[in-house]
Amino acid sequence: MRILPLLSILLLLTGASAGAVPVITFDELPLANGQVVDTDFAGLPGPTIANIIASNVGGGPDLAVLFDSLATGTRDPDLEGPNWAVGNTDLTQSLGNLLILQENSTGCGDDVCDLPDDEGSRAAGVLELVLSEAVLSFGIDLIDIEDSGPSEPGSFTFFDDAGASQVTVSWSELEAGGAFDQGAVFGNNSLNRIAPITAASLGLSGIDRVAINLGGSGAIDNVVLGVNEPATLALLASGVSGLLWMGRRRSS
Ligand SMILES: [Ca+2]
Ligand SMILES: [Ca+2]
Ligand SMILES: [Ca+2]
Ligand SMILES: [Ca+2]
After folding, report:
1. Which ligand is closest in space to the CA of residue 100?
2. What are phi and psi of 89, to 5 degrees?
3. Where are the domains of the chain?
4. CATH dotted code for 27-225
């Protein structure tokens, strides 16, 4: 029974490491609807989003902006919810602030855009999330992505090793039967929760930057940055069974 203290320590360790998976909700800080953001979330406990780089190809400004989805009478009712129209998750959930690529420059001079609205051109542009450290998995909510193509072909590009390697996953691969099947259903006022995609499944050693290539309108929320792979826990669990087996052998 000398094995028990060691087991408790192992279980404690696995429990602790599996506990906190950082989620960036864009509601952590007291920021206004229409707030222009870039390094605002860098101070959160890591891993986090160190910087947000916006590149608008639809004619609007290169600004990433917060959009309060709970507001009504906004410039874009497609970004208002709940209740969301279609999607792969609970459509009655409140998301609070979303992150958008801003379409107009009205009143943005003071860093709070007066008329927050997502760029609706096809294509719209890129929201690039630079992470504070490499992570092993990446999850995200996609809001109001209307189509997976060919009219608005959107995608993620995952980078590791400061851009040495990159892999692109298109929206169509997230639909039922796709290579990264998430059962995503796109459309106006949609909400799709993309469960964490692992670096391993992409053939990357880690993920330190993600470009969200917007083929048209859309917003993001709830960025999940995973630092532990389920495989790590499985490995530890098998270590525990191994120790149990050794313990049994020793006592017999
Ligand atoms: Ca939110
Ligand atoms: Ca303003
Ligand atoms: Ca819009
Ligand atoms: Ca829309």
Report:
1. 3
2. -145, -175
3. 1-21+228-252, 27-225
4. 2.60.120
Q: How many angstroms separate the CA atoms of 126 and 46, rounded? A: 24
| Distance from residue 228's CA to the centre of ligand 1 (Å) | 23
Beta strands in the chain (DSSP E): 23-24, 49-56, 64-68, 97-101, 125-135, 137-143, 155-160, 165-170, 191-198, 207-214, 219-226
For the stretch 212-222, pLDDT in tens is 999 999 999 99
Asked whether the beta carbons of 103 and 118 are under 8 A apart, the reply is yes
Question: Measured in angstroms, how far is the CA atom of residue 100 from the centroid of ligand 4?
Answer: 12
Question: Which pLDDT tens digit goes with each residue over 185-206?
Answer: 999 999 999 999 999 999 999 9
Ligand nearest to the CA of 36: 2
Is residue 124's pLDDT more than 60?
yes
- Nearest ligand atom owner, CA of 60: 3
Region 35-46: mean pLDDT is: 96
State the pTM of this model. Answer: 0.85
